[in-house]
Amino acid sequence: MYSTYLFEGTNIDVPHRYENLEYQGFGAQGIVMKAFDTQTQQNVAIKKLTRPFAHPLSAKRTFREFVILNLINHQNVVKLLNLYTPQNDNINEFSDVYLVMELMDGNLSTFSLQNYDQEHLSFLMYQMLCGVNHLHKSGIIHRDLKPSNIGFRANASIKLLDFGLACAENSASLTGYVTTRHYRAPEIILGAGYKANADVWSLGCIFAELITKTILFPGTNHVDQWTKIISIVGTPNSSFYETLTDTTKAYLNSLPKYSAKSWESLLPDSLFPSWEKDSELTAANARDLISKMLVIDPKQRINVRDAINHPYVKLWYKASEVDGLASPSYDITIDDIEHDVETWKRLIFNQIQTWQ
Ligand SMILES: CN(c1nccc(-c2cnc3ccccn23)n1)C1CCCCC1
What residue stretches are annotated with the Protein kinase domain (predicted)? Predict the structure, then answer.
């Protein structure tokens, strides 16, 4: 029934239909292999989840990823092709979960955008905005977008690879894998309320990084992350503080006050590939879009749908990609449900049975 391979000290069990396994990468959630699916005659990515229900939080994240992958159908979100466990006969032995997904050529953290041109950069941003827009239309807020969970193909197509559920807990403590917080919105770092445009902040950080090839806010911890943010975009005005607790407010007010740096100084024309003289894809338009995305106060920050209308990306607009039918709405209560591990395990096991 299953062939077993050993990669990076991990046993990978795959049904005989998948052949020629090759190691692809390792992420917070697990190890990813490339394989050839002899039934569909196509290459696929097989992701073995690391300890999928070791903690209630990782179990919730595993279940949430299945629910979302089953719901979402958009060309800028990776598709789930199959779901299996080698322990399919007995839930008491159930321990490993494998997701079979569309294969990408890599992700934005492995892909250095050497000799890309303005069209390529603008098209990448348009597709990221389309993928996130589709999640938002289905009631999903990612909260943890970063270069490593944005897949790309050599033909310049982009697909979101996973669905976040960022919360303070899922740092090194749970999975032994430090999840980077360099791309997290200020309201999430400060534990304040957040809305869908928390994801816009992350995309703005990724956008700047594609241009400068360095991390815009490389904070070493939450405090340093906030300090790096305000040293570049400037200390926010008082209206942002209204949403914070008194202790957070008092702490933030104790910090030195910074004025915003100019985006022209941070992202000079020299960093951008050249552009046609009458094109909209100018460094000035790119900077203008970034300046609307990297706004600390979410009430002042642009949302995804309006970002897609910005001159820097709107030239790619296709109604079917942006304003098409949303997937059935994600049941947001899943984000707030607390189950014990056994319950999550049963829910996940049942989800897998629907694929058999
Ligand atoms: C979260 N991750 C993930 N989720 C779903 C699908 C894929 C995927 C699809 N094709 C490829 C090709 C190379 C590497 C990853 N993939 N990757 C990755 C985990 C490893 C590190 C990069 C992200």
Answer: 18-313
Domain boundaries, position 140 = 106-322
Q: Are residues 78 and 156 in the same domain?
A: no
The answer as to whether 331 is a domain residue is: no
Residue 329 counted as domain residue: no
What DSSP line would sit under 271-333, residue for residue?
GSPP--TT-S--HHHHHHHHHHHS-SSTTTSPPHHHHHTSTTTGGG--HHHHSSPPPSPP-GG
Mean pLDDT of 127-145: 94
pLDDT digits (tens, 9 = 90+) for 296-349: 999 999 999 999 999 999 999 999 999 998 888 888 778 888 899 999 999 999
Confidence of residue 356 (pLDDT cuts 50, 70, 90): confident
Ligand 1 in reach of 32 Cβ (< 6 A): yes
277: domain CATH number? 1.10.510.10
Mean pLDDT of 211-231: 94
* Positive or negative: CA dihedral 162, 165, 171, 173: negative
340 is catalytic: no
Same domain, 215 and 342: no
Domain co-membership, 120 together with 149: yes
Q: Could you give the ipTM of this predicted complex?
A: 0.90
Give the pLDDT mean for 120-129: 96
What's the pLDDT at 214? 93
Q: How many Å lie between the centroid of ligand 1 and the Cα of residue 227?
A: 31
CB 106 near ligand 1, within 6 Å: yes
Taking the centre of ligand 1 as the mean of its atom positions, its distance from the CA of residue 32, in whole angstroms, is 6
CATH number, domain of 80, equals: 3.30.200.20
Token pair in block for residue 56: 């209630």
Task: Report CA-CA distances (Å) from 57 to 41, 77, 174, 315.
Answer: 36, 23, 9, 41
pTM of the model: 0.92
